[in-house]
Amino acid sequence: MFSVCSRTARRGRGAARLAAAALMSGLMATGAISGAGVAQADDGATEQSGASTTLAGLETYGAAVIHEAGKDEEVSAGLFRMAVDDGGTLQTYCVDIHNPTQPDAKYRETPWSGTSLHDNANAGRIRWILQNSYPQVNDLAALARKARAGSLTEQEAAAGTQVAIWRYSDKVDVDAVSPAAEKLADYLQRSARDLAEPRASLTLTPQAVSARPGDDASPSASPSPAGAKSGAGQRVGPVTVRTNADSVTVMPPVEAAADGVKLVDEKGEPVTTAKDGSRLYFDVPERAKAGSAELTVQASTTVPVGRAFASDTRSQTQILAGSSESTVSATATATWASEGAVPALSARENCAKGGVDITAANSGDAPYTFTLMGNRYTIPAGRTRTVTIPLQEDQAYDFTIKGRHGFEKRIRGVLDCATTSQAGSTAGGGLRTQATTQPSPASVGGTGSGTGTGTDLAETGSSNSTPIIAGIAVLLVLIGGASVVMGRKKKSPAEGQGEDQVGDGE
User: Fold this and answer.
1) Is 223 helix (H, G, I), strand (E, B) or coil?
2) Containing H/E element for 408?
3) Are 204 and 240 in contact (CB under 8 A)?
4) Could you give the angle at the alpha carbon of 79 between the alpha carbons of 73 and 83, nearest 5°?
5) Are 226 and 239 in contact (CB under 8 A)?
6) Which of 33, 292, 310, 340 has the fewest CB atoms within 10 Å, counting from its CB?
7) What is the pLDDT of residue 314?
8) Which pLDDT score, from 0 to 100, does residue 234 have?
9) Cis peptide bond prior to 238, omega within 30° of 0
10) In whole angstroms, what separates CA 492 from the centre of its chain?
């Protein structure tokens, strides 16, 4: 059966498993750990904004048929369940029909700009489908009347909704097996209208700030200057809260608190809670030694329908169909020093530009210079600049950027900005098929509310050939990474040496 959208097969020949394991070991040895949407930073923890989840599996589903390259292949199509870190449950559909999901894959709420939806003119129509079909519309009789489908089961409603989404997310020729589900898919596709991308459930802007204790101002501040004095200290910020929650809990920077660093509002008052639009500051003593601190905010809210979720591994992108009350969080960092360059760095994948955006703000009194991928970048004192590091689709990256006073930021991930069809992985080769001898389970690690018909469906996103295909993909990434490294070694010493890192030039 054809492999799409559920989980990687646990079956496979021994040689394929060994080859995949050996290649994965090589990948981990190079430090090229994968991620998507938001670049991973520092010790590997993602610069968090919103919900973090673990994929539980395909929960409610029916059957669909993909017509491609002269072949018809039957697949599972339906609704996934995700467990939210620290509490909550999400329901999602997938938006990359040819890409497999991975068991227990970690996902993070991600803006459309960090996924294959970034250049999809029909992304807003997908959001309309999500808001006007199952499970947002749980009156199946009313939904069936609108679609003139007679009647709909939950499995048929989920399958029809997923099929309609695939037609817009992947531009694929796909039909639901059930006549009622097919009528629903046709109705949703025909009726869909363009809607705007929903706001994040919780985010902090910017994700990194910097200043010099004792300074009166910093150019990143408006209208309240970053670096504005607060009593005998220095306010580093502001960091603005954006959320759909009524309020958020502000967690103090525990390690920095011993040095007298605290979190305050615009009036310089200590804060423990905030709301949408609140501006937060790190209050740093004027004579504090150079250092950094992290701000974390957390809230309980429903994540907006239509938010994308990208994985830390090569597991297909999901889009939110429903949310319980869930725990969401966001982080931001502050850096300060009394002299020299004082950088603040944040990173985000930019699919429109095909790379990773690195935003560097320098609140110091000297230029901040770093070299990356053979290019030298200088951020003048008091200025902010965003540079895009170009990458190939599915290319792993691992950068370390250094500065004075022990400043160091590691940024790593893998660029995942296109559906598998857009990336051309199936071009010229037709469908990648693998016969199965058993019906697919409804979810990873257990049973769900699947069709239960005994139909010989593909494990969406799985097949006996998956380890081989994955192994080849990893090998290509390794070869590509090695080529990049060898290419850098041929450059002149002035362009940078060693791994992708540099120290502050001041």
Assistant:
1) coil
2) strand 408-414
3) yes
4) 130
5) no
6) 33
7) 77
8) 81
9) yes
10) 36
254-268, 366-380, 471-485: segment of lowest average pLDDT = 471-485
Are the C-beta atoms of residues 98 and 394 closer than 8 Å to each other? no
CB burial string 227-260: b at 16+ within 10 A, e below: bbbbeebbbbbbbbbbbbbebbebebbeebeeee
Q: What is the per-residue pLDDT across 274-286, written as a single tens digit (0 to 9) for each? A: 999 999 999 998 7
How buried is residue 81: exposed, middle or buried, by Cβ count under 10 Å (0-12/13-18/19+)? buried
Spatial distance between the Cα atoms of 357 and 174, rounded to a whole number of angstroms: 35
d(CA 21, CA 90): 31
Which whole-number Å values give the CA distances from 410 to 40, 47, 241, 347, 397, in the listed order? Answer: 8, 11, 25, 10, 10
**pLDDT tens digit string along 134-166?**
999 999 999 999 999 999 999 999 999 999 999
pTM for this predicted structure: 0.72
**Smallest Cα–Cα separation from 333: which of 246, 424, 433, 207?**
207
DSSP codes joined into one string, 312-378: SSS---EEEEEE-SEEEEEEEEEEE-SSS--EEEEEEEETTTTEEEEEEEE-SSS-EEEEETTEEEE
Measured between alpha carbons, how far is 271 from 446 in angstroms, rounded to an integer? 44
pLDDT tens by residue, 317-376: 999 999 999 999 999 989 888 888 888 888 888 888 888 888 888 888 899 888 777 788
Residue 306 three-state SS: coil
Lookup: tokens for 107? 């996902």
Number of Cβ atoms within 10 Å of the Cβ of 498: 10
Lowest mean pLDDT, pick from 187-201, 305-319, 369-383, 394-408 = 394-408
Distance CA 503, CA 338 (A): 18
Token pair recorded at residue 288: 């504090």
User: Are 360 and 385 in contact, with CB atoms under 8 Å apart?
Assistant: yes
88, 325 Cβ separation under 8 angstroms: yes
How far, rounded to the nearest angstrom, does the alpha carbon of residue 383 sit from its chain's CA centroid?
Answer: 28
| Alpha-carbon torsion (369, 372, 376, 377), positive or negative | negative
pLDDT at 423: 59
Taking the C-alpha atoms of residue 309 and residue 372, their distance in angstroms, rounded to an integer, is 28
3-state secondary structure 64-105: EEEEECCEEEEEEEEEEEEEECCCCEEEEEECCCCCCCCCCC
CA distance 435 to 464: 8
For CA atoms 421, 415, 102, 472, the dihedral sign is positive
Phi, psi of 386 (to 5 degrees): -110, 125
Q: Which two tokens stand for residue 204?
A: 């902090």
CA dihedral 4, 8, 12, 15 (to 10 degrees): 110
On the CB side of 75, CA atoms within 13 Å amount to: 36
Residue type, 35: G
